[in-house]
Amino acid sequence: MTKLARILLNFLATIFFVSNKELFIRKNGLKLLKFVLLIYSYTPFKKNNIFFKIARSDKFEQYSDLYNLISVLISQDKKLNILEIGIGGHDKEFSGGNSILALKYMYKNSKIIGLDFENKKFLEDSRIKIFQGDQSKIDDLNNIVKQYDNFDIIIDDGSHFVNHQFASFEFLFKYLNDGGLYIIEDIQGSYVKSMNGDPELAYEKNLVTFFSHYTHCTNSRFIIKKLEKKFEKYSNFNKLFFVENAILIQKNSKNISKKYPEDELYLSLEEMNTKKKRIKDVSGVIKQNINNR
Ligand SMILES: C[S@@+](CC[C@H](N)C(=O)[O-])C[C@H]1O[C@@H](n2cnc3c(N)ncnc32)[C@H](O)[C@@H]1O
Read out DSSP for 176-232? Predict the structure, then answer.
C-alpha cells in the first residue's frame, strides 16, 4: 500500500472511530488496490511488470523482464488456470496477495489459484481460489489437483527451499497444459547449503545443474534413439530460460515438430547433398535444383 493510501485510510479510521485501525487499513487497502489494478487493466499500453509495480509485489524489482516476456509466450486473453505457490505476508493477518491480485487483473478471463502455508482465504473471490498447505507435501498438492487438474501457468514463489521447489515441480509439471509455463523464482537457495542447495552444484541439489541436464530436450526431435532414455523424463520441454535467480520452462505445444530422420544425422555433407538434390558448399551457400541445370 502506498504511503498516501495508508494516510487516507488512517484518517478515515480515526473519524469513524474504528477500533482495529490496522485491520481496517489492510482490508480497505486491498479494495483500493483492486480498484487501481482494474483501472490500469483497461489502459491500452499496459505491461505485466507495471501490474506488479502497482500491487507492490517484489516481482517488479526482480522479474520485470521475465514477466513481460511471458505475455509473448502465452495469450493473456484466454481462459487460463494460473497457480501461484506462495501468496505473501507469511503469518500476518490480511497480509499478502500482491502478486495474486496483479495476476488477476493481468489475466482478466483466468482463474487464479494460490497456495500458501498460512491461511490466505481472505483473498478469495469469483476468480481467486486459495488453498492452505505445504508445497513440499504431495497430499497438499493433490488437494489442489483434485479440483484443478490442469494449469497454464505455475509460479513457484513459496518457501524457496530447493527440496520444496523440486518436490512441487516433480509433482505439478504433469498437470501443466501443452504450451504452459512453469516458473521457479528465487533459485538462490540452489547455491546455499542452509536452503538444501549445494555450493558445489550437485545435480540433485542445484536447480540450474538439474535443468541444464535437460536443455537438449528443447531439441528432442534431434535426439538419437540411443540417447532418448537419458532425456525422456522431460522430452516435452520446449523452451528453457535461465535468468538471474529464476528459471522458466515452457512445455511443448500440441503441434510438436516431427522427429528428424536419424540416419540423416550421420550423413556427410556430400551424402546429404545427394539426398537433398542440392549443393551446399562448405561456406554454407546452397545451389538448389542441380537437376534443372
Ligand atoms: C515470498 S512470499 C510470496 C510473495 C508473493 N508471491 C508476491 O510476489 O507478492 C512467500 C510466501 O510463501 C509462503 N510459504 C513458505 N513456505 C511455504 C511452503 N512450504 N508451502 C507453501 N507456502 C509457503 C509464506 O507463507 C509466504 O507467504
Answer: EEEEEEEEEE-GGGGG-GGGT--TT--TTT-HHHHHHHTGGGGGGGG--HHHHHHHG
Assigned fold of 51-260: Rossmann fold (3.40.50)
Q: Is this model's pTM higher than 0.85 or not?
A: yes
Atom of ligand 1 at shortest distance to CA of 155? 6
Closest Cα to residue 168, out of 152, 150, 182, 179? 182
Residue showing cell 486473453: 77
Measure CA of the first residue to CA of the last residue in the chain; give whole Å.
73
Burial 34-48 (b: 16+ CB within 10 A, else e): eeebeebbeeeeeeb
Beta strands in the chain (DSSP E): 81-85, 111-116, 128-132, 151-156, 176-185, 237-243, 246-251, 279-280, 286-287
Read off the C-alpha cell for 30: 486491498
**CA–centroid distance, residue 90 to ligand 1 (Å):** 6
The tens digit of pLDDT for each residue in 68-116 reads 999 999 999 999 999 999 999 999 988 899 999 999 999 999 999 999 9
> Looking at ligand 1, which residue's alpha carbon is closest to its atom 25?
90
Decide: 87 in ligand 1 pocket, CB within 6 A.
yes
- pLDDT band, very low/low/confident/very high, at 51 (cuts 50, 70, 90): very high
Quick: pLDDT tens for 208-227: 999 999 999 999 999 999 99
Domain positions in the chain: 1-45, 51-260, 263-293
Residues 224, 221: Cα–Cα separation, whole Å: 8
Ligand 1 atom nearest the C-alpha of 89 is: 27
Task: Give the SS3 label for residue 110.
Answer: coil
